[in-house]
Specification:
By secondary structure, the chain is an alpha/beta fold. It contains 13 helices and 14 strands. It has two domains: 179 residues, Aspartate Aminotransferase, domain 1, CATH 3.90.1150; 265 residues, 3-Layer(aba) Sandwich (Aspartate Aminotransferase, domain 2). A hairpin with a 4-residue loop joins strand 2 and strand 3. The structure holds pyridoxal-5'-phosphate. Pyridoxal-5'-phosphate binds next to helix 4 and helix 7.
Length: 450
């Protein structure tokens, strides 16, 4: 990529042409999709370098990559061609009812890619449906009603899952969890922001295991009522937090003791996003069900799946499918994506190194940067009032994200959040990622005080 093609922002954001379209948007969409809740420019097109061009001629490095659903850039040629060929051959099809060879091949390849205890696949369209389906399967398999989930996780927007979800967005947990039976919660384990402790970490996140054993199981729910533990091995929406090995050891002990299934929601963390194929590989996890989506789509059609063991799935007739499940062009795209995965993962590790080198020093330089986390092509910068209180600093995050945006770095951020997140294509050119990190260092220098 030549230097003159690097991102440039030459107008206010949004620029005048974007504003025209935003005005139309606000007339026709419901309030959640009004311009203030979406990104501050309208896309004109994307180029082969993966840059976004807005309606006003500004360009941005894309660190959102369709929230992880375009892991190989906007138009990987192999994926594009595979979709066209499959569509020409099979057209639209309801693949849970009328099958074709690629549908079976994708299931076989996913089983081969999964931890060795995984032998079966249930296809779904969205990640939300994969999580919903896994809960139905867990209840069927165990005959137990309850699911143990973790505060701060995100699993989707169905009525049920909105209840098992709590992000830091104001109001999102309110009015959901209390009307949905069948869930109990523990705080999400992390050594940076551990529950029941305060002050600068690292903290011992096995306090969450103690809480489950000594409080939850004693006072709220019988262990024999719990069908499954639902956990994101790395909690994406919460801010790319990961538990420690000691936490997983404790959880595995409880699983064994009480016969709980483990459902790993890898819809965001999997398919190479966090370094290995599955984030759970970082701790040698062997879940009973592993949920995949987003990156599985390879930038093609909506695709997700529940991968599971014989014990859970070999004899199950739970429905997880529907009209649009694994339609052939989407399946062909996913298969083409799997062929790109190894190279993409190698690139992601290069991005991880660059992030560690350039972004990690922000923590010692600025009191307002509490933590920088990087797993593969996934980075988070957490803003705090000060490192002792660790109180969220939304203002600093927002100022930082605006300064980065004006330099052409577009990532995952909103004014309510205090964690800024980068989720580029796994294949982003390392020079562009390095350039983006350098812009972030300049943005920090502009808006933070050392
Ligand atoms: C961890 C996790 N689970 C589930 C979902 C829901 O997936 P979808 O938006 O495809 O329904 C998401 C989406 O962001 C997610 O990050």
């Amino acid at each position: 990529m030549s230097l003159e093609n690097y991102p440039k922002v030459a107008t206010e954001l949004p620029g005048p042409k974007s504003i025209e379209i935003f005005n139309r948007q606000d007339q026709v969409f419901y309030a959640q999709m009004h311009s203030g809740s979406t990104s501050p420019f309208i896309v004109d097109f994307k180029d082969a370098d993966g840059l976004i061009h807005d309606m006003d001629g500004n360009t941005f490095a894309n660190h959102m990559s369709a929230w992880g659903a375009a892991p190989y850039g906007p138009f990987p040629p192999e994926v594009r061609q595979a979709q066209i060929d499959a569509w020409d051959r099979y057209g639209m099809e309801i693949s849970c009812f009328l099958q074709s060879p690629p549908v079976v091949e994708l299931a076989e390849r996913l089983v081969a890619l999964a931890p060795k205890n995984i032998t079966r696949v249930a296809p779904t369209v969205t990640g939300t449906e994969a999580v919903e389906g896994s809960i139905k399967l867990a209840r069927e398999c165990t005959g137990r009603p309850m699911i143990l989930a973790f505060l701060g996780q995100y699993h989707g927007e169905s009525t049920y899952l909105a209840a098992s979800t709590s992000t830091e967005l104001p109001g999102s947990p309110t009015g959901n969890a209390q009307y949905t039976p069948g869930l109990v919660f523990a705080p999400y384990p992390s050594s940076y922001r551990a529950p029941f402790t305060s002050g600068a970490g690292p903290h011992d996140d096995t306090v969450v295991i103690d809480y489950i054993e000594s409080w939850l199981l004693r006072h709220q729910v019988e262990p024999t009522q719990i069908a499954a533990v639902l956990i994101e091995p790395i909690a994406g929406e919460l801010g790319v937090y990961a538990p420690s090995q000691a936490f997983w050891d404790g959880l595995n002990r409880l699983r064994e003791e009480h016969g709980w299934l483990l459902i790993c929601d890898e819809i965001q963390s999997g398919m190479g996003r966090s370094g290995p194929v599955w984030a759970g590989d970082l701790w040698g996890l062997e879940p009973d069900m592993l949920l995949t989506g987003k990156g599985l789509a390879a930038g093609g059609q909506a695709m997700a799946a529940i991968l599971g063991t014989d014990k859970v799935m070999a004899d199950s007739h739970v429905y997880t499918t529907g009209t649009y499940v694994w339609e052939p062009a989407g399946v062909a795209a996913a298969l083409a994506g799997l062929d790109l995965l190894d190279d993409a993962m190698r690139n992601a590790l290069e991005l991880e190194e660059i992030g560690r080198e350039i972004l990690a020093p922000l923590v010692s330089k600025y009191e307002q940067v509490g933590d920088v986390r990087q797993y593969g092509a996934w980075a988070a910068v957490e803003f705090v009032q000060d490192t002792v209180s660790q109180a969220p600093n939304r203002q600093a995050q927002h100022a930082f994200s605006q300064a980065a945006l004006m330099r052409g770095v577009f990532a995952i951020s909103s004014p309510e959040k205090w964690v800024y997140r980068m989720q580029p294509a796994l294949t982003m050119q390392p020079e562009l990622f390095r350039w983006s990190c350098e812009q972030m260092v300049e943005a920090a220098a502009e808006v933070l005080s050392d």
